[in-house]
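Chapter summary example.
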Amino acid sequence: MSARAAWRLVSGDFAQVFRYTAGKADWSAYGLPTEGKSVTPNRAGNLAGRDVPTCSLSDHADTIRQQLRESGARLCAVLNEHRVLLGQISAEEVESETDSTAEEIMTAAPTTLRPNVKFEKLCEFFKAHNAETVWFTTNDGELLGLLHREDVQRAAPKVEEPACMH
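The structure predicted for these 166 residues follows.
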């Protein structure tokens, strides 16, 4: 809300008024709920899987390999103590490792998008980068989820551009 609206509420005897100073774009980029005429349900973050395997920089390859096998996932997110995405490790990368840590085998700084990206832009991203996955993070780099190309392809008929992935 604007500063004017916040102060108006305070002057009207509201005890707890919170003003989100970063603005609507930042709020939306965190995947927080929005409303109004310009809101579309076809935001990329709505498709991203939130339950992804994670590890820390110091986790050993054996632990990561086991976690990936148990989850059936192909990627593990390497996070710091603030859940900031530092890297990724694929099942293939960790398969032959024995004494390595996540920090030693990860692919650093994977490509990320914000959850408020519209579906059309997401389609453009997958086409342009020939990517199979993309991570979603907040503006501060905190992990929100992972989206697979096939999930976008499945969702495509339900949104504006059915053939966007071809």
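To summarize the output: Helices lie at 3-11, 24-29, 61-71, 91-95, 102-105, 119-129, 149-155.
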